[in-house]
UniProtKB/TrEMBL annotation:
This is Phage major capsid protein, P2 family. InterPro entries: Phage_P2_GpN. It comes from the Bacteria. It holds the Pfam family Phage_cap_P2. The lineage of its organism: Bacteria, Pseudomonadati, Pseudomonadota, Gammaproteobacteria, Methylococcales. It comes from Methylomagnum ishizawai.
């Protein structure tokens, strides 16, 4: 059995006490509700500790587990004239958010983390011990938010990490929501089975695939200045390999580095992003704020306790949350894209 050093145990217990104070919990209480006022602050810190992409999507605190999805995008024309001199004629209000019926349902999600005694001992000499622990937990949770957001396909009563290592059964993520939507016929293309093959005669390059995907976005959003392309890394890698084969060291203007460290390329006239955990063979065109994660601040629970039988401390976390797409008309998706092997250049 592993043994936690006296220093390590003292620092771990200090962390537990400071964590309770941070959230306004009574000293000595083991499990506590996370202070809702701190919830948004925690989510902002996740973007620093896990991935800057968490700061691009729309993280919305919502008080109810079920309700209407809201997206303050361009819903169309709001300008008009009305002849109010005509009897019974009144001016008509126009909504500035999507009018399509779009609802959400939150489900409980558990994020339970084991921190081994050896890890705690390795941190115990650090003056910022609490910050290191908290950042590690936020990083793990933040990464999973993106992982499930891109890969989630269902809600299982009991999830199976072995069968679904990308959290496919934790929740329905953005891609699955787009596939299952009532408007999928207009905005979703299943490219599997060779229907969409990068490098083929019909789809010769990534610029063309992105441009045709953008063409499926509803005309209201098609020229939105915030529209971006979300592209799988395997497609970008293939495109770059073909470029280097043909152009050698000739410079390309396709990439630039943003201040937050994200490398952005340009395909099909749109800034193209390849976020972590995005599955292979995907091209999507949307705005980042159209990709939503909704969470209920009042549902956030946390408990940190010693688990000597595991030679570790347990950091139990849970809340109610779900993913949503603000307006399906603003999200065109092609997935299942394959790569057609080209003949080597002579």
């Amino acid at each position: 059995m592993g043994i936690l050093s006296d220093t390590g145990r003292r620092r771990a217990e200090e962390f537990r006490s400071q964590l309770r104070q941070f959230h306004g919990a009574t000293d000595g209480v083991q499990a506590f509700t996370v202070d809702p006022a701190r919830a948004q602050e925690i989510h902002l810190l996740m973007a620093q500790d896990a991935s800057p992409y968490l700061g691009l999507i729309d993280n919305q605190p919502r008080s109810d587990m079920r309700g209407d999805v809201l997206y303050m995008g361009d819903s169309g024309l709001v300008s008009s004239r009305t002849n109010t001199a005509a009897p019974g004629t009144e001016r008509t209000l126009k909504s500035v958010h999507s009018l399509d019926k779009n609802t959400y349902d939150m489900y409980p999600v558990e994020r339970d983390i084991k921190i081994g005694y050896s890890v705690i001992d390795s941190w115990s000499h650090l003056p910022n011990f609490m910050d290191v622990w908290a950042a590690m937990v936020r990083r793990a949770i933040g990464n999973d938010i993106l992982r499930v957001g891109w890969n989630g396909t269902s809600y299982a009563a009991s999830t199976d990490m072995t069968t679904y290592p990308q959290g496919q059964d934790v929740a329905k993520g953005w891609l699955e929501l787009a596939r299952d939507s009532d408007s999928a016929e207009d905005y979703y293309v299943d490219g599997s089975g060779g229907e969409v093959a990068l490098g083929s005669e019909e789809f010769p390059n990534l610029d063309y695939i992105v441009a045709t995907t953008k063409g499926r976005v509803h005309v209201v959003y098609r020229n939105d200045p915030n529209l971006v392309a979300i592209v799988s890394q395997n497609l970008i890698d293939h495109e770059e390999q073909q470029f280097y084969k043909q152009n050698g060291r000739k410079p390309t203007e396709k990439s630039k580095l943003l201040e937050n460290g994200i490398i952005v390329k340009t395909y099909g006239g749109l800034p193209a992003y390849s976020p972590p955990f995005l599955p292979d063979g995907v091209v999507g065109c949307t705005t980042w704020k159209n990709l939503q994660r909704l969470f209920q601040p009042s549902s956030m629970r946390r408990k940190v306790e010693d688990k000597p039988e595991l030679n570790a401390y347990a950091d139990w976390n849970s809340d109610n949350e779900c993913y949503a797409i603000g307006d399906y008309r603003a999200f065109a998706l092609v997935d299942g894209i394959t790569i057609e092997e080209t003949q080597p250049l002579e």
